[in-house]
Amino acid sequence: MTAPTTQELIAAAAERPATKKEGARFDKLTEAQQARARELVLQLADGGKPVTATWKQAMTDAVAQLPAEPEEAPEAPEAPEAERPVPAGYENRWPYAAYDVLKKTAADAEGPAWLVRCNAHGATTAAASVKAAFATARHTPRAEWCDGCKADEADEAAPAKK
Ligand SMILES: [Zn+2]
To answer: Are strands 124-127 and 99-104 parallel, antiparallel or unpaired?
Structure first.
């Protein structure tokens, strides 16, 4: 049995990283990233580096060059305060990320003195006072007054579709 040639040693070392830590990292890459990393390992080794010393750089570069597709699109951010329309006669007195507390400022405007709004769905519910508005916003489940939240909750409770 003859000793492997240098070329064979390089080819074997360029197949996947030899160390456990780098091997674990390699296994997490996508197939395209793995293929790219193998190419980069050989390119870096051509520059005179030992193949085993090139994996770390090669994997970093491969991931940077071929970012993996996110599994799910990130959720759209909730509309910034300025883009959330306020009903005529009201002002957005207490804007929060999840809800707004709107105060009626025009005495002749229609509607209750205060409104609580779900910022995910735009639904509002009436409140007689600021205290009542915050009690609703913070302590009443939004599914009780927002149809959108109710539908979301029903979706989450439903068994996952396969
Ligand atoms: Zn909602």
So the answer is: unpaired
